[in-house]
Specification:
Layout: E1 13-16, H1 27-36, H2 41-48, H3 58-63, H4 77-81, H5 91-95, H6 105-116, E2 120-125, H7 132-138, E3 146-149, H8 150-153, H9 160-170, E4 177-181, H10 184-192, E5 196-199, H11 203-214
Parallel strand pairs: 1-2, 1-4, 2-3, 4-5
Helix pairs in contact: 1-2
């Protein structure tokens, strides 16, 4: 007699990335910087934010809380030289200038709705300590059961430690989590932990997908 397959645990926590999910993607700002250098967006992304895999790129180090944001710019030149790009010295400042992104209010409203429905909600983001005040202005932190920030954990997506920290802080098992992110490498690591995932390419289109996992 064949053995029955254990039922998959129901979703009890929905976790949201910040950039590209709750706000418009950072690539919008990168495109303007790329134009200044007559470069394409993937090239500027590699120079300023580093490769998909985590490593010693200055942006990655700042997101892990190892260096200050103010230290990123002067450390980028070796990465720029690989692509024959001469930086102007203000690229990080231009990237992080306030008002360069739009908050996706309908997605924020969905977070609040899920919390009221009794689900646990999480914010899982690669970010800097210096950016926390801006996030607090943009978001209702009370709508999140747990806020998991890379600089506080000392690990960044897609490093495994931050995914484990998320489950621990939410107080759920990995298969109980549904996660929304716009970067494939972050989605792939989440899936390796057994999380259900939504790869967000259009935040507005992703909102109704959430309920498909919950119903």
């Amino acid at each position: 007699m064949p053995m029955a397959t254990p039922p998959k645990p129901s979703i009890n926590a929905v976790v949201f990335d910040f950039g590209g999910v709750l706000i418009t993607s950072i690539t919008n700002q990168l495109s303007k910087i790329a134009q200044r250098h007559s470069a394409d967006v993937p090239t500027m992304l590699a120079i300023m934010l580093g490769p998909h895999d985590s490593g010693d790129h200055p942006w990655h180090r700042a997101e892990r809380g190892e260096i200050a944001v103010s230290d990123i710019q002067h450390s980028l030149q070796p990465w720029a030289a690989e692509h024959n790009i001469s930086l102007h010295g203000d690229e990080i400042e231009a990237l992080m200038t306030p008002g360069q992104y739009t908050v996706i209010q309908s997605m924020l409203d969905k977070v609040g709705e899920l919390k009221r429905r009794g689900l646990k909600t999480g914010l899982l983001t690669n970010t800097f300590a210096e950016f926390r005040p801006t996030m607090e202005q943009d978001l209702r932190f009370e709508d999140f059961t747990a806020v998991i920030e890379s600089f506080a954990v000392g690990a960044r997506k897609p490093e495994p430690a931050i995914y484990q920290a998320t489950a621990d802080l939410l107080g759920v098992t990995h298969p109980e989590i549904l996660y929304l992110d716009d970067f494939p490498q972050n989605i792939e690591m989440a899936q390796s932990f057994g999380w259900s995932t939504i790869h967000v390419t259009d935040p507005l289109a992703a909102i109704p997908q959430i309920d498909l996992f919950l119903n």
